[in-house]
Amino acid sequence: MLSLVVLTAACGGDFPQSSLRPQSDVARSIDDLFRGIFWLAVGVFVVVEGALLVAIVRFRERPGAERPKPVHGNTALEVAWTIVPAVILIFIGVPTMLTLWRIDRPPQGEALRVEVVGHQWWWEFNYPDLGVTTANELHVPVGHTVDLRLRSDDVVHSFWVPRLAGKRDLVPGRENQLWFTVDSAGVYPGQCAEFCGIAHALMRVRVIAEEPDVFERWAELQSHDAVEEPGGEALVETGRSIFFGAGGCISCHTIRGTPAAGVLGPDLTHVGSRSTIGAGVLRNTPTNMASWVKEPHKVKKGNLMLDMGLSDEQARDVAAYLGSLK
Ligand code: HEC
Ligand SMILES: [Cu+2]
After folding, report:
1. Distance from the CA of 267 to the center of ligand 1, in angstroms?
2. What is the tally of structural domains in the chain?
3. Looking at the CA of 308, which ligand is closest?
4. Is residue 125 part of a domain?
5. Strand, helix or coil at 33?
6. Is 92's pLDDT higher than 90?
7. Which of 73, 95, 166, 206 is most buried, judged by most C-beta within 10 A?
8. What is the pTM assigned to this prediction?
């Protein structure tokens, strides 16, 4: 009894990354397929194990019983156990192929195009029709199909948000496609699902699904250049001058509307509006931002950002500047 309690305790909870709680059209068709095959398998299990139990009980050896007659060469039996599994395979194969074709064809109707670029170890998202570039947090409108075009900048990665779709690889030199339509607003976590180097386990992604009007407001804000309000807070001012000067940050990062145009790291134009830092390893708070810019490798081992040797004060000021980029 106690062990049962312990065992089933693992089954409670929210399961934000369970493919058994689908939240999109594509995820649901995969889940339907899974459930159909699962119940078919349960049927096969019950029949086979039932027959086994009957055989064990009815035909077990009894004192004085005759030796049983061998079934070798029984044509009817052999034909039956060839045909029955073939029929079962048809019941598995046909729905599987239909589902694969359905999710493999291009999205039907209007779809929002997003280019997804995999980098060691973060995600770049470009919305070519909206003029938006962001990282690690993919905003999508609820009820609208999104058409993801996936590429890689370095090695093979795999985009996997279990509640929204199956895995899709990002392969250098080719473009893959993945689409889905999210059912309801919420945050759907996922992660890279193809080993891609030392920080692979820390290459997380969040899909933030919003009602269309909320999404439109977000896209509108994100499409603007960074707002460099003159005469901001003193910390922000100092932070900005470190970012564009001694910090050396502009060799790798872009802040649209400023001279910063580096492309090795995530676009930071609106980094203050993201909820996490470093592909989901930290919540985006001033303190966390300061520890990230001061010692990125303490936070995320092996990542490709350079430690620019900032002091605690400099890191705090740069964090204040980045936090102001909403
Ligand atoms: C050698 C190139 C390089 C330099 C120089 C560099 N960075 Fe980065 N930065 C990166 C890379 C690559 C990442 C992505 C790390 C990851 O998540 O794996 C990153 C990530 C970040 C992030 C997190 C962004 C997000 O959305 O998760 C911030 C903030 C940041 N850098 C700020 C800075 C600041 C401030 C400086 C200057 C002190 C700086 N960077 C210097 C390459 C660089
Ligand atoms: Cu990976």
Report:
1. 9
2. 3
3. 1
4. yes
5. helix
6. yes
7. 206
8. 0.90
Taking the C-alpha atoms of residue 226 and residue 323, their distance in angstroms, rounded to an integer, is 12
Query: Does residue 72 have a pLDDT over 70?
Result: yes
36 domain residue, yes or no: yes
CB 229 within 8 A of CB 321: no
Let me know if residue 158 belongs to a domain: yes
Pocket residues: Cβ below 6 A from ligand 1? 121-122, 135-136, 199, 243, 247-249, 251-253, 264-266, 268, 271, 274, 277-279, 292-293, 300, 303-306, 308, 310, 318, 322
| Cβ-count burial 274-297 (b if 16+ within 10 Å, e if not) | bebbbbbbbebeeebbbbbbbebe
User: Quick one: which ligand is closest to 195's CA?
Assistant: 2
98/161 same-domain check: no
- 191 with 252, same domain: the answer is no
- Return the ∠ at Cα 178 (arms to 176 and 183), rounded to 5°: 170
Residues in the chain: 326
Segment 168-223, tens digit of pLDDT = 999 999 999 999 999 999 999 999 999 999 999 999 999 999 999 999 999 999 99
The neighbour count for residue 179, using CB atoms within 10 Å, is: 23
pLDDT digits (tens, 9 = 90+) for 301-322: 999 999 999 999 999 999 999 9
Q: Whose CA is nearest to atom 36 of ligand 1?
A: 249
Residues 6+ apart with CB under 8 A from 184: 23, 142, 209
Distance CA(265)–CA(254), nearest Å, equals: 8
